[in-house]
Amino acid sequence: MHEYSVVQALLDQVERVAAPHAHAAVRRVVVRLGDLSGVDPVLLATAYDCFRVSTPCAEAGLEIEREPSRWECASCGRGLAPGSPLQCPSCRGPARLAAGGDIVLARVELEVP
Amino acid sequence: MCGTCGCEGTATTLTTVEVEERVLSRNDTRARHNRAHFREEGVLAVNLMGSPGAGKTAVLEATAGALGDGRRLGALAGDLATDNDARRLTAAGVASVAVNTGTACHLDAEVVHHALHHFPWRGLHYLFVENVGNLVCPAVYDLGQAVNVVALSVTEGEDKPLKYPVMFKGADLVLLTKIDLLPALPFVRVEAIEDALARVMPRPRMLRLSARTGAGMGAWADWLEERRRELAPALPPPASAVAS
User: Is B184 at the interface with chain A, CB within 8 A?
Assistant: First the structure.
């Protein structure tokens, strides 16, 4: 259940983003979550609701944009079918994860007086 | 004034700040710091992960003998509680300290960094970070290691790589442990495990081991020595590596 420590990192990160904006209130936090990031979206939302109390995110909704994973050949860029061996059927090169491996803070919406 | 209609109200505006930064960027920074320390000192840091009971500690106990004299080994043994693993490893010749995480299911770069402040890691040739037994959470955190190794025991079944792809996609090597038990497991086919790994690991590499019989330990020691040579000047051949 590492989502709790991921959320702690997220809340700290949002606080750093909001800090230069005096008297701003955080209204929305948008996270892009890859299917192969190792972070579960439901647990992330639960952990966020649990921890945002008494933080600058107390009144801010969390929006999770799911990013599907996509493997492609590291050499020729050919996309690989989901579930297939991670070797390019054309050039036999190893695949690389082109999308879906990360959890990223995409943007923060602030209400500024 | 609010700027819209000239009233004296408390109108506010919404501003969007584009961030596009990894949520674990602070951990990444600390991991880079750890990695720089390891590189400067020529220490090969190995993040050893796997399920509870996969045989991580047993492999490390046997690794001391497999690498032989002339290699200085250390370990941080991560567990929620007890120093049992650290004591076992110290008895086996691997200088060790327990890193108790309380309720946390993984180690992170900060925890490793803190542990290093209390552990004489400089001068080691190999530092093994035995992560908390767990096939999920440790995969998410970079510790500053040079390599990720996942211990997968034959008793865990054929499809663990497919069920836990995040753990295996980041592995540089999988150690298939407890192969001495295979005769008692007719429903576990090693080729099915290899096929599963090929679907989740871009560069699948697996070694079959038995810490109990010593099978495969020589190949594991060779793999470690190769990785260390990529990082630091070659060491003289070990005086008495246990052949297997």
Answer: no
* Distance from the A89 Cα atom to the nearest Cα atom in chain B, whole angstroms: 13
Cβ(A87)–Cβ(A93) below 8 Å: yes
- Give chain A as a 3 state SS string: CCHHHHHHHHHHHHHHHHCCCCCCEEEEEEEEEECCCCCCHHHHHHHHHHHCCCCCCCCCEEEEEEECCEEEECCCCCECCCCCCCECCCCCCEEEEEECCCEEEEEEEEEEC
Q: What six digits make up the tokens of B244?
A: 């297997």
Distance, in angstroms, between B26 CA and closest chain A CA?
Answer: 8
State the complex-level ipTM: 0.94
Which residue in chain A has the smallest CA separation from B136? A38
Q: Do B19 and A5 touch (CB under 8 A)?
A: no
Mean pLDDT per segment of 10 residues, for chain A of length 113 residues?
92 96 95 97 97 95 97 94 93 94 98 92
